[in-house]
């Protein structure tokens, strides 16, 4: 191990693991001692377990234009970054001070503007920044807090000094990833994590939630005073706090959905919200609900298309006016992007003296704003040692390293600097510290790479709470001069050692009396209800596709054309109904279809399983994954892991798959679909969201059963009906009851009329009627279940002896009519609950 440690030592950089003599730093000794006591295979197995858990949990970070798309896995190193308690106390105090300072700057710039009037901030630095939003000047802030969430990117110089490299003030990202890193890595070193008394993260999130609730109650009081139709919150009633997301294609959407589930907040998009009477409302299936606090993950100018950016499709029209009235608390306040400008860094030491009457506890990396003449000349004269960045977000330019520039490029850059000096800043190129990283997972080899730390702060009524640790980020390679996840960086868990035992902290809200009990989710957004509805439909549809493909491939493989002639055309027709096989669109195509041989059909069935370009099972599974991705905060981790594992099964296709490969994939998929059914039926609370999902499941199954039976009734009278029982999962039940070959009357009775059979048509109809009548009663509308009830009454009046056979058209007519009713029912649910255009919608929609 000592040989390995010697290879990690570099004299020109600070080493987090080793001191200047190449010896272990004290706070790393326990981790290294455990690694020394283990066989190399133990570390390899630990890393594989970490990677597997990242994949199974579906932890993703979407790099734009990356080929992995929304499924790009998060990169997590198994070795944590360890920080001693004494050092951490200095970091935490410095970050809290900096958040306090920047909050005061933000309040002044959008308030009385003393800093601009006195010359402590150059007007060009503020007014020339596209992040400065004049329309937000004068917006009030509860308790003078405009910067609720803050993150500082810090790095260590060769002398061991921590420096602030950048401030994140608009919508800081990464806190959720830090929490997920902790969950995974603490499980990789459970005994060590316990024995070292690592500071826990849950207390930080508890403070965050308590603070948002505190300000939410303040807003609720203001709403009740200014808007007559809003009643004050009851004792113990929580305010409505939402997380506003740009949507599932945002690079950190997984983190947003993870935090929403962890904190218990609705994750909403701009289309879920509306502004009425000076209040932001959430569109729920129970009507409009007033929102008290918004934790936004949308950039400033996209938040309000009415006042900020007319082209935005992400925000809420009128949001700025609601903030101006004090009827919503927005974290962070609109306009906070201004503080992310690196041009401010050079002014913070004097601002700290002016506003806080104290020295800045942690310096910023040396920064020169070229808008100052003296700074411009210094930058031009020392260009080879500096990195040039844009001062404003509207300046489209990548960082330029002076040492990389040719003489011609230097002259061109100098010309640009002199032409528009206020558009650029220059920073010292910092050789930041290195930390140990596991680089070869197979050989368990450790290397040393540059590391930076993002530390998070959140405002409370009593000052800023600091997350103990934060998100450690590692450079992508030895020669990388920037640490960024967008360019292939790796993350680490950050362990802050404590002198005391760390008790677990629960985020569950304390219930003080029976008045605080909640048994229904009243904040189910219409979009979430629609997602749940279609998730239920996709789950059943995928299972039906898989079972239909399995039955068809079995018939192809196990029987000759002569022995499967009776039902074969029906099975092919059902595959065509699912778009799994080509459809005959004219007489010539029909003749070709009827002439298909087994050799023609086999490759088509293989494509129906694996193709990424059609309505195949693989494509449908990815659609199911996307639907689940939109519901991430509503489903359990086990539920999500099953969906994620199922999706990965179909991402990589066999080079030349056979029918056996297709059957293996189908069987595995069916197992996963059945598991998802178990989660839906046994692990999800039967609240309003579950009922919408159940409606989707039952409508999809009812439609399939109608199509299946109506087509089966066209088969010859003596056709083999075992396949019909197989695709409806009723073969075992039939054999147990009749111990005979399947016949039409008992088969149709089992599939139509058996109320104890979860795949029977009557079972689906009765369940649908129950939920639909409950929904009719909720909004006093009535009528949505009338047509389906007529179908049920017509079914129970059918004479089984007369109608339950292939020759009678009465049953076929009933099946066709019921199918049409289910289509109409789906449309009416959409109009009533999802699209806000129903005549029965809650007033104000």
TrEMBL record:
Cross-referenced InterPro entries: ATP-dep_Glu-Cys_Ligase-2, CP_ATPgrasp_2, DUF403
Domain DUF403 residues, every copy: 524-834
Name of the protein in its database record: Circularly permuted type 2 ATP-grasp protein
Gene3D superfamilies: 3.30.1490.270, 3.40.50.11290
Domain of life: Bacteria
Alphabetized PANTHER family for the sequence: BLR2978 PROTEIN, BLR5612 PROTEIN
SUPFAM superfamilies: Glutathione synthetase ATP-binding domain-like (SSF56059)
Residue span(s) of domain Circularly permuted ATP-grasp type: 80-475
């Amino acid at each position: 191990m000592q040989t390995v440690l010697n290879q990690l030592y570099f004299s020109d950089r600070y080493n987090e693991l080793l001191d200047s003599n190449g010896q272990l730093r004290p706070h790393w000794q326990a981790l290294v001692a455990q690694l020394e006591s283990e066989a190399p295979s133990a570390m390899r197995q630990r890393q594989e377990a970490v990677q597997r858990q990242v994949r199974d949990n579906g932890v993703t970070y979407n790099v734009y234009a990356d080929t992995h798309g929304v499924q790009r896995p998060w990169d997590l190193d198994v070795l944590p970054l360890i920080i001693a308690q004494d050092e951490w106390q200095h970091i935490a105090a410095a970050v809290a001070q900096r958040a306090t300072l920047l909050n005061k700057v933000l309040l002044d710039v959008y308030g009385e503007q003393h800093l601009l009037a006195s010359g402590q901030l150059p007007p060009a630095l503020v007014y020339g920044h596209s992040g400065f939003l004049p329309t937000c000047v004068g917006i009030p802030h509860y308790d003078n807090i405009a910067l609720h969430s803050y993150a500082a990117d810090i790095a260590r110089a060769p002398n061991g000094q921590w420096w602030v490299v950048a401030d994140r003030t608009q919508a800081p990202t990464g806190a959720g990833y830090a929490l997920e890193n902790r969950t995974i890595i603490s499980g990789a070193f459970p005994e060590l994590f316990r024995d070292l008394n690592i500071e826990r993260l849950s207390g930080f999130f508890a403070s965050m939630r308590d603070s948002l609730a505190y300000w939410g109650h303040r807003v609720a009081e203001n709403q009740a005073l200014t808007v007559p139709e809003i009643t004050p919150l009851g004792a113990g009633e929580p305010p409505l706090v939402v997380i506003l997301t740009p949507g599932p294609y945002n690079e950190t959407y997984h983190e947003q959905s993870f935090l929403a589930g962890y904190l218990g907040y609705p994750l909403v998009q701009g289309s879920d919200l509306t502004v009425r009477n000076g209040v932001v409302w959430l569109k729920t299936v129970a009507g409009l609900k007033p929102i008290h606090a918004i934790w936004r993950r949308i950039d400033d100018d996209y938040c309000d298309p009415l006042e900020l950016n007319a082209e935005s499709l992400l925000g809420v029209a009128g949001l700025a006016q609601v903030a101006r009235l004090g009827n919503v608390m927005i974290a962070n306040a609109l306009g906070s992007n201004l503080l992310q400008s690196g041009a401010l860094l050079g002014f913070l030491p004097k601002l700290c003296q002016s506003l806080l009457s104290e020295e800045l506890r942690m310096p910023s990396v040396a920064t020169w704003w070229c808008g100052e003449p003296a700074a411009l000349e210094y930058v031009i004269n020392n260009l080879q040692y500096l990195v040039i960045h844009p001062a404003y977000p509207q300046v489209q330019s990548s960082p330029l390293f002076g040492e990389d520039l040719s003489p011609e490029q230097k002259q061109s850059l100098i010309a640009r600097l002199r032409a528009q000096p206020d558009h650029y800043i220059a920073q010292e190129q910092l050789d930041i510290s290195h930390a140990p990283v596991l680089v070869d997972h197979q050989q368990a080899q450790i290397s040393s790479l540059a590391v930076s730390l993002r530390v998070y702060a959140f405002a409370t009524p009593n000052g800023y709470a600091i997350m103990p640790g934060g998100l450690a980020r590692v450079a992508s390679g030895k020669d990388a001069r920037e640490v960024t996840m967008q360019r292939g960086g790796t993350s680490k868990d950050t362990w802050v050692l404590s002198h005391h035992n760390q008790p677990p902290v629960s985020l569950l809200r304390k219930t003080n009396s029976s008045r605080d009990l909640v048994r229904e989710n009243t904040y189910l957004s219409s979009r979430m209800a629609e997602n749940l509805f279609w998730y239920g439909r996709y789950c059943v549809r995928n299972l039906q596709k898989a079972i239909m493909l399995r039955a068809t491939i079995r018939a192809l493989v196990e029987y000759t054309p002569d022995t499967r002639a009776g039902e074969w055309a029906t099975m092919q027709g059902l595959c065509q109904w699912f778009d799994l096989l080509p459809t005959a669109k004219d007489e010539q195509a029909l003749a070709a279809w009827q002439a298909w041989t087994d050799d023609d059909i086999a490759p088509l069935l293989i494509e129906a399983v694996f193709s990424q370009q059609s309505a195949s099972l693989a494509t449908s599974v990815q659609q199911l994954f996307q639907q689940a991705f939109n519901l991430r905060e509503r489903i359990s981790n086990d539920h999500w892991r099953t969906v994620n594992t199922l999706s990965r099964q179909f991402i990589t296709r066999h080079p030349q798959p056979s029918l056996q490969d297709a059957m293996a994939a189908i069987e595995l998929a069916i197992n996963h679909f059945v598991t998802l059914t178990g989660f839906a039926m046994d692990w999800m609370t039967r609240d309003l969201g579950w009922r919408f999902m159940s409606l989707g499941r039952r409508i999809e199954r009812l439609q399939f059963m109608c199509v299946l039976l109506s087509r089966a009734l066209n088969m010859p009278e003596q056709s083999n009906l075992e396949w019909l029982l197989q695709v409806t999962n009723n073969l075992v039940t039939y054999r147990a009851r009749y111990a005979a070959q399947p016949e039409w009357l008992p088969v149709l009775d089992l599939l139509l009329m058996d109320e104890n059979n979860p795949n029977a048509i009557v079972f689906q109809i009765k369940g649908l009627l129950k939920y639909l009548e409950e929904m009719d009663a909720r909004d006093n509308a009535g009528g949505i279940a009338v047509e389906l009830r007529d179908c049920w009454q017509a079914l129970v009046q059918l004479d089984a002896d007369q109608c339950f056979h292939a020759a009678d058209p009465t049953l076929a007519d009933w099946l066709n009519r019921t199918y049409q009713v289910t289509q109409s029912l789906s449309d009416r649910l959409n109009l009533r609950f999802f699209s806000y255009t129903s005549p029965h919608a809650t007033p104000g929609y």
